[in-house]
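Quick note —
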Amino acid sequence: MTDEIDGRKRETLRRFAAIGAAAPFVGTASADSGDAGGDANETREAIRGYVPTTPGAHFSKLRDDLRLGTGEAQHHLRKLEEAGEIESAKDADYRRYFPAGRFDDLDKRALGYLRRDTPRGMILALLRDPTATGAELAAELDVSRPTVSTAAADLEAAGLLDRSDGYALTEPERLLTLAIRYADSFDADAVALADDAASLVAYDP
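Predicted structure written out below.
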């Protein structure tokens, strides 16, 4: 059983390492210095591939998706951050990771909320139908009205939603671009939106 788990971990790391090797960060050599062995390099390359394709992922998701141990993930993330290849931002109880220098603060907040189920569902629903009401959003997402209200308040505080007259996204083009560009790292609903709306994108973060 252990061999099977190790095999899956190695396969996962190799898949993301291939992405990282194809589009390496600046400063790769400095981040690798001081680590011995191919396993460390492969893990570092996997993180290099994972972070740009899943920006805004929090620590636990990154660790679990790459099948890393907690200490192992912390070590490599710290090395990459010290080398200036990635950056992190605190988001409530989460620390989220991004490729360095690629996103502004609003992009980071938007990606953080796109990685939360209810806010993401609300954002995608409002991108499809900007006139959707709180009751309609609750029904579509199969959650309670208070859940929608709480998520709406969070989105408003983040500068992504205006509740002065119903629910209106304040940055629809930005949110649409991010949802489409990273659809595969969200869910099937985001992928469906991307299939329908990719031709509408103009914003380029």
